[in-house]
Amino acid sequence: MDSIANIIEPGFAEIRTELRGQDPTQLDGAFCRGVHRRLRALRNAPDLRIGLLGNVTLDLLPPYVTTHCARDGFLVRTHVGGIGQEMQALLSPQLQDFAPDMLVLILSLRLLRPEAMAGFPALSDNQRRALRDEVLDHVEQWASLAAQRTRATLVVANFPAPAQPALGIADGKADFGEAEFHLDLNLELLRRMRRHARVQLLDIDRVAAGIGHAHAFDPRLFHLAKMDWSPAMMAAVGEALARHAVAARGAARKCLVLDLDNTLWGGVVGEEGPQGVLVGPGDATSEAFAAFQQRIRTLKQRGILLALCSKNNPADVEEVFALRPEMPLRREDFSAVAIGWNAKHEGLRAIAQELNIGVDSLVFIDDNPAEVTLVRELLPEVEAVLLPEDPSRFVATLDALHSFEKVVVLPDDIGKAEQYVQAAARTRLSATAASFEDYLAGLETRVSLRGARAADLARIAQLCTKTNQFNVSGKRHALGELEAMLASEAHEVICVSVADRFGDLGLVGVAVLREAEAALHVDTLLMSCRALGRGVETALMNAIKTRLLARPDAVQLIAPFVPTAKNHPAAGYFAEQGLVADDVASSGTITYRLPRNMARPVPCDWLQILGDEA
Predict the structure, then answer these.
(1) How far, in Å, are 224, 307, 440, 568 from residue 427 at the CA level?
(2) Which is nearest to 89 in space by CA: 106, 113, 68?
């Protein structure tokens, strides 16, 4: 989240505030074009560069993309390639100079294979399957070339089925008919693109279905401009691309905080009693609240933490969870609670502090307009969401949020809530240990330090985008950059994994080293805050010193500390590890150096070192 906050200058902040007060489904073309002009007038550097390529006219799409992305906190610049030049554009100097962070491919089957699609009913079964493979090969060739030529996240659109197959109802009886062709084409496209680590699938077919085919497409526009999307469809695609931007930048928020009365259940528990609140089977309202809880549980399975913030009697709340076993959510599903009579913004601050995350990592959902308005005013970093009056619409409200989008759900995400249970056990050990040294020894920490592999890159990219406090350079390497570094002979990527007697913390740290000009440079060094305070960061620097000594051409280690809004905990790290501050730039960047003849490990004997450094 720090990367977004850093770009919010006054002009952008004002625009974003306006957009957050708007219903994203109601942002029409005129409104988006006005916002787009205002965004283009801003001089601050963009947070994201998005390239749009395809064989259709895409010139009308950027206002919708930039507006929806601004609502999510990204100042976006766009580049539109020439129509039908999706391959040539990858080789063009214009695209290379633009250096996209995200590159989108949108193709029309009618323009890609016009004769075959126009005469589809006359094609044989084998010809239809060959056509499917030709289209898939074309897209995969583009994805492979785009991955070679750029470091961008690649977003590939699938193909919407026609409103009505040419053979009508008889298409269902045809061998590999038009409906089956599109279903099979999109399914195989999903499977092929899944093999490309940097590719995300833009589900145009689902977007069009959500709007309704009659409202999504305008055949007149196709004949006039070679693009048959209606303004409503363009707005919906812009919104979908904003979701992909949140995922690509690793900007998912970490915790969903929920009110209780008339949010998780119907009614007020203090008045109705635990058996009187509405949730579960039996009637439409109770079932709607149960469905909302079920949907919330799926967020926990994505690795999103759950918390409660409610003005209530804590004993009443505990009774509901104890006496209503039919509720999908249990008390243990929530990693933090702030239940009492304090103001909601105070409770949200307390939850963030307990979980050791920023308030800008929180999404707060409540049914009370006054509470939501107050949180928006006093804690604007929190995304505060007002529920509609009808509980049957709660699930759709939750689904409409972009805040929890991720490129992939990793094993580390799935175990996120359990990590907080383990952290509580470590805290109890700390409270009972006779000394800090006894605490460190009692943890029985095992540290794996090894060169990164391709399978590690998704998690390393996630760490790069999420880690704020212990990130010495503030760099946010995307997956494409990490792939290039892993393939480069001049770079080495070290990953750090930690486990102890209470559980496996997983891959929690990374260092990127670069050898140049008779020196070993620390390009990136970061570590999750949950691994700090036990010497793991010292073990990592010891490994870096070992690598310095193993390189006869490197006479020194050079490590810059670049201050950001949140990395104060890392400010003294290099000095503590024996490096000497050599230069302080006007920006505040401090360059540290360590001659190879002074590279000595700092003892951390309570750690068991595994892997390359065993």
Answers:
(1) 67, 20, 12, 23
(2) 106
Contact 232, 216 (CB under 8 A): yes
Q: Which of 100, 81, 207 is nearest to 147 (CA)?
A: 100
Residue 24 has pLDDT above 90, yes or no: no
Three-class HEC string of 223-237: HHHCCCECHHHHHHH
**Res. 452: pLDDT tops 80:** yes
Q: Domain 2-248 carries which CATH code?
A: 3.40.50.1110
Q: Give me the residue spans of the domains in the chain.
A: 2-248, 255-399, 434-611
Q: Which residue has the tokens 């760099």?
A: 475
pTM of the model as a whole: 0.85
* Alpha carbon 369 to its chain's center: 28
Q: Which amino acid is at 253?
A: R
Say if residues 200 and 156 touch (Cβ distance below 8 Å): yes
- Domain 434-611 matching CATH 3.40.630.30: the answer reads yes
* DSSP letters for 388-404: PS-GGGHHHHHHT--TT
- What is the chain's length? 614
Task: Say if strands 556-561 and 590-595 run parallel, antiparallel, or are unpaired.
Answer: antiparallel
DSSP string, 406-445: -S---HHHHTHHHHHHHHHHHHHHHHH-SSHHHHHHHHT-
Residue written as token pair 């589809």: 120
H or E segment to which residue 123 belongs: none
Strands 503-516 and 491-500: antiparallel
Q: Tell me the CATH number of domain 255-399, given options 3.30.420.40, 3.20.20.70, 3.40.50.1000, 1.10.3430.10.
A: 3.40.50.1000
Please determine whether the domains at 2-248 and 255-399 fall in the same fold group of CATH: yes
- Average pLDDT of the chain is 92
How far is it between the farthest Cα atoms of the chain?
A: 83
